[in-house]
Write a structure and sequence with these properties.
38% of the residues lie in helices and 24% in strands. It is an alpha+beta fold. The strands form three sheets. A four-stranded antiparallel sheet has the order 1-8-3-6. A four-stranded antiparallel sheet has the order 2-7-4-5. Strand 4 and strand 5 form a beta hairpin. The chain is elongated and about 65 Å long.
Length: 223
């Protein structure tokens, strides 16, 4: 096995190849090959292992009561699947996990991963950072979903990207990505951006946005 591959995985960041070989030579592990479009896990299933995308692309999505599918995020290699849900009282997948492309997963059962955490401080710190970052991402996702209107979501996004005292911002997501992030149709994003420009909230030039009236834009976040 090429242990240099593991050094690209955030959980194992900072290990040398010799350290990786010494650790993994004594820990049971396996590779799962998943076809594109296949379901890896369903929302509500118990998380029994650490699963890391070694190659390919995976997505997490949820379906609301109206039957609409909302993509939560894409998980490219070398991302981990539901790392914040391996431990805890409700250690179940929060969303459906689906392979977007043919994918290889590196799998370590929960108890074996726990041994790695107990025996290596680097892995422990990396894991804590990983689940903290993931929790912060989900917190942001919930914040945007709480806004009732697309105008409110876009206003919050623009103001958040700009920060305090900055009038120009370059969007870090495409309009298609924004639509998936907000759980709306892509044409709705373009339509609302045009409305905001026509009503002199912002000026839009591709991915670059200039805030014309910050106070008016902030009021939209109350919608």
């Amino acid at each position: 096995m090429d242990y240099s591959l593991f050094l690209k995985i955030p959980v194992f960041k900072g290990l040398s190849e010799d350290e990786a070989e010494a650790l993994f030579s004594t820990i049971p592990k396996r590779i799962r090959k998943i076809r594109a479009g296949a379901v890896i896990a369903l929302s509500g299933e118990t998380v029994r292992s650490l699963m890391i995308v070694m190659s390919g692309l995976v997505k997490g999505e949820m379906v609301d009561y109206a039957g609409r599918t909302i993509k939560i995020e894409n998980i490219p290699a070398p991302g981990a699947l539901a790392p914040a849900f391996i431990f805890g009282a409700r250690n179940r997948f929060p969303v459906n996990v689906i392979a977007v492309t043919d994918t290889e997963l590196f799998v370590i059962d929960k108890q074996d991963f726990l041994k790695l955490l107990e025996n290596n401080e680097k892995i422990l710190v990396n894991f804590l950072n990983l689940i903290s970052n993931r929790s912060q991402f989900l917190s942001e996702k919930i914040k945007f979903l709480s806004f009732k209107t697309i105008r409110g979501k876009l206003a919050q996004y623009i103001l958040q990207q700009a920060g305090e005292g900055v009038s120009s911002v370059r969007m870090d997501m495409t309009r298609n990505d924004l639509a998936e992030f907000f759980g709306v149709a892509r044409p709705s994003i373009s339509r609302v951006l045009r409305e905001l420009e026509d009503e002199d909230y912002v000026e839009v030039r591709g991915k670059d946005i200039r805030i014309i009236d910050r106070k008016k834009l902030a009021l939209l976040t109350m919608d």
